[in-house]
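Kindly review these tokens for lecture notes.

. . .
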Amino acid sequence: MKEFDPRVEKILKDHINSVNSKWQSNVFPSSSLAKIVLSELDLPKTRFRLIHKEVRNILKDWAEKKLCIHMGTTHYTHSSKTKLIYEFPDEIIDFFRFEGIITLPI
């Protein structure tokens, strides 16, 4: 099983849940998620490549576990930049929303 930084996974889940709650959006490019992680962890922009790789690996792992769907990959011809686009089904976003909440029987 792959081990990822739990802080990064939590930031991703919280951001996906927040954006979906506000705007009903469920499609996210990996580069924008990496920028959110950079700002939340207060890291310099020079760490973008490392964080983006971590985010891509997490999203790839989630896609293998059927938590999201890989919609496409964008390659830029003039550079080596790559952006992966993922869609999160509503039931998975609901799972992120309620993950960790313990319900007590009445």
